[in-house]
Amino acid sequence: MALKDVRCGAHVLRFDRTLVMGVLNVTPDSFSDGGKYTDFEAAVSHAERLVQEGADIIDVGGESSRPGAQSVTLGDELNRVKPVIERLASELKVPVSIDTYKSKVAEECLNAGACIVNDITGLADKKLIKVAAEHKVPVVLMHMKGTPQNMQQNPVYKDVVGEIYNFMRERIAFAKDLGVDDIIVDPGIGFGKTTEHNLEIIRRLGEFRKLGCPILVGPSRKAFIGNLTGLPVQDRLEGTLAAVAVAVYNGANIVRVHDVLEVKRAVQVADAIKGMR
Prior knowledge:
TIM Barrel; eight-stranded parallel beta sheet; two-stranded antiparallel sheet; 9 helices
């Protein structure tokens, strides 16, 4: 099934190739790059560099969702992300996404120029769905079992892919009933999943195509790669590239990553093998 284009404000996402979403965490405590880009100019420069390296989307987050992370106040999150989004939206030639589950943060950042909402809670907040509908922006709907505080405390599934699929199908219908037309699904690698769950999701990723939505996958530097290789977070590039390549071959339309330059090159080859070149 061919995917329709997705409009994000003045931008259009086309899925004739795999898109690369570059991660910009303006947080002090993210698992991979916490504290690196809390300075405004450092954040802006990093986003510009990601675009130069080939990012098709920049995803800005102001609250860490690593296992065990604590929530931050609305004010703190807005102070971190809104000025950066205002600057990036006015300067970059790619769409800017806001990574948040708070409706007020989403609304303020969409007003500031963001044109995608990336919600790790799978649109648990009905107000956020209404905000996205009013602004006519696409939403990334992610699956997470539990919360960042408890999601990795022995997650259990009878059928991890089947359960995520059913969750997505229900949430897509709910969001569309409330006026959100464009939805991107993210099975939530590392969010309430064991290493084996993550491997099975990537292996069976093609099953999510039946939902009729673009599929986003975020394996970048995740713990399952460290569990498989025995390597710390800063040494997980090769594992990330392997996971990305297999995910692309199995149906990913967007990959969310930290290492844009290297991933972009890997994706170009994976796309060619799939016959998308």
